[in-house]
Amino acid sequence: MKKILLIVFFGLIITSNCMAYEEANYKVVKKNNIYEIRKYSDRLVIETSISNESSSFRKLFNYISGNNDKNEEIKMTTPVTQVEKKGNMTMQFYLPSKFNKENIPSPSNPDVKILNIKGGYYAVIRYSGRASDKNFIKHKSILENELKKDDMSILSPPVKATYDRPFTLPMNRRNEAMFEINIKNKGEI
């Protein structure tokens, strides 16, 4: 029995780390022991307001599963992000790089919007464990304090980014907290 449990355990670890999703394109321009600064390119996302997390995820997942004007299935990408906009929380799925404003299918659900997020610089702290609000708030606060110490101007509300499937073991999960920042007058980055 122990042998079977070990095989299942290691099988979960291996398969949870083998899923290769396209990731939002960025370049790391600076890194220290706490966070890194990334330069992101423009990117397309689908977005919906969060009424409850599973319903928001379901709306976005339905879109990539073919609930769009072309009935086209779209590959999942990472990360899934959450950010506050105008007092409301939103959830976003990044779209594969093969899509642009001309060839992206229109959502069938009016709650799902397609947006272009302008490229820019983001300070990012990476952490493992559960993607809980408590874990996010802890790391967001660490990042925010470090940015203040480093005299960096924060331009956005915090962004919660998750990269893994829900059944990925907590110690293998990749989560991030990030802020868009202004790097002008900070010398060479």
What does this structure look like?
- With 189 residues, this protein is α+β, with helices and mostly antiparallel strands.
- 24% of the residues lie in helices and 33% in strands.
- It is built from three helices and twelve strands.
- The strands form two sheets. Strands 2, 3, 4, 6, 7, 8, 9, 10, 11 and 12 form a ten-stranded antiparallel beta sheet that branches. It has a two-stranded parallel sheet with strand order 1-5.
- The protein is globular and about 50 Å long.
- The chain starts with a helix and ends in a 7-residue tail after the last strand.
- Mean pLDDT is 89; it is low at 2-18.
What does the secondary structure layout of this molecule look like, with pairings?
Blueprint (H helix, E strand, L loop, with lengths): L1 H17 L3 E2 L2 E6 L4 E5 L2 E7 L3 H12 L12 E2 L1 E6 L2 E7 L18 E5 L2 E8 L5 H17 L3 E2 L4 E4 L12 E8 L7
Parallel strand pairs: 1-5
Antiparallel strand pairs: 2-3, 3-9, 4-7, 4-8, 6-7, 6-11, 9-12, 10-12, 11-12
Features:
189 residues, alpha+beta, ten-stranded antiparallel sheet, 3 helices, 12 strands, 33% strand, globular, disordered N terminus
